Every structure is written in structure tokens, then in C-alpha cells.
Amino acid sequence: MKIIIADNYEEMSIKAANIVAEQIKLKPSSSLGLATGGTPVGMYQSLIKMYENGEISFKDITTYNLDEYIGLPENHEQSYRYFMDNNLFNHIDIDKSKTNVPNGNINEGQADAEAKRYDKLISNAEIDLQVLGIGGNGHIGFNEPCDIFNKNVFAVKLTENTIKANSRFFNDISEVPKMAITMGIKSIMMAKKIILLASGKEKSEIIKATIQGNITPKVPASVLQLHRNVTFVLDKEAASLL
Ligand code: F6R
């Protein structure tokens, strides 16, 4: 396990972007696993700059996002598809038909079928580099703390904790979707290489538990200790308890 500690959020973002750029240069047809959330936004901005400077091209890249809310159309400002389009895809030369996000524009009754479809896609994908953030409770994707590690892509009922954390992006907590589709732990662990980004003091305890604690589904990210090629890219505050 590799740990990179940056001085601040900006430096963390650049270091993470450099790892992604290296992957793209090494293999221009890479498959990338991508995350949404606040943490990777700076990394996406750095990647856009590198593209604009002619350092990298995404034209042969395929992407697979970790997760998506159920019940939001693609053009809903809080859908993860909308997030990816606006924070990355619309600003680079990627072929949109090669960008994959679970379809969230469905009702809860259709969720299992969509999870199955996305699982098939991921299982055949061979992701070269997976980017992860981490929730304050140790979730990766929407794999919440529980009694067993979930394996494949699945439809998940979100915990009160996560609904509350995500409500900051909605007008009212009642608007936050109650379900999502997410890659499971096995889908994530199958990636050849993983980078997990974390920034800020509020992530320091969960980063310590993830890296130095027991491997347990109560801290879903702790499973990364078992991956053969994982790099944690942290800022000083997130790393402060290590
Ligand atoms: C997003 C995702 C989530 C986030 C996590 C951290 O696609 O899978 O697990 O990575 O909730 O979110 P931020 O970065 O907003 O703290």
C-alpha cells in the first residue's frame, strides 16, 4: 500500500491527476473507474488543464462510474451523470458513448435489473485505474458499513447518515434519493490499480481506521488493505492521525 501526503487540497488534486495522466499516457485506451463527490473535483480540473495544454487525450479512454442515485433523470443537477458531464466529460475530448454511469432514470422496482446490466458491463471491463473517495463512515461507492462485504454491482438503500450528508446538495432532505446503484466491493477490488483521495480533518479518523485498523465490512474501505496496487492520496489534515 502506498501513501502520498500532500500539503493541501490543491496539491492532493495535482498529485492524483498526475497518476491518472500517467496511466493515460502509458495506455491511451485505458478503462478508468471514476467517482463523484466533492473530493475529486480538483483532480478533474487538473486533468482538464492537462488536456487543454495538449499533454493528454481522452479520445480512446472508456470510463465507468462507481454509482448513481435511483430516481433522478440524467439532466438533474444532482445526478452523478450530470456531475460527470459538467466536471469532466464536457471539457475533454472523450467519446461520450464510452462514458458509463448506471442509469438512475428508473424507479426503485427497476433497480435490480439495472444493477444486473451494469454488473455485466463492469465484469467485462478490466478497469486499469479506479479512483475512489471515502465517506466519513468508511463507505466507498455506496458500500455502506454492514456485516458482509457486498460483491457485485447492487441496488442499495442509503443509510440515514449518507442521506443527511448528501442533503447539503438538495433544497430539502426529502428530495434526496433513498436508493442508489453502486459497484460492489468485488467490482472495485477487481481494478488493476486503485487510488483513494481524501482531504480535510473530518476524514482523518476514517483514514486511520481504513489504513491501520482491522479489515472489516464495518469499515468498507479497509478492504483496500488487501489490494495489490492501492495508493492513498491524502492531504496533511486527512493524514494527521496516521
Ligand atoms: C461518489 C462516491 C462516494 C464518495 C464519498 C465521499 O461517487 O462513490 O463514495 O466518494 O461519499 O464524498 P466526498 O468526496 O464528497 O467527501
Describe the structure.
By secondary structure, the protein is of the alpha/beta class. The chain has one domain (2-194, 228-235): Rossmann fold, CATH 3.40.50.1360. It is 30% helix and 17% strand. The protein has seven helices and ten strands. The strands form two sheets. It has a seven-stranded parallel sheet with strand order 1-10-9-6-2-3-5, with helices on one face. The longest helix is centred in the first third of the chain and has 18 residues, at 9-26. The two termini are 14 Å apart. The model has no long low-confidence stretch (mean pLDDT 96). Bound molecules: fructose -6-phosphate (F6R). Residues 35-39, 66-67, 133-135, 139-141 line the site of fructose -6-phosphate.
Briefly summarize what is shown.
30% of the residues lie in helices and 17% in strands. It is of the alpha/beta class and 242 residues long.
Describe the strand arrangement of the main beta sheet, using strand numbers.
1-10-9-6-2-3-5
CATH class: Alpha Beta
Q: What's the tally of helices?
A: 7
**How much helix, percentage-wise, in residues?**
25-40%
Structural class: alpha/beta
Give the integer mean of the pLDDT values.
96
User: What portion of the residues fall into strands of 2 or more residues?
Assistant: 15-25%
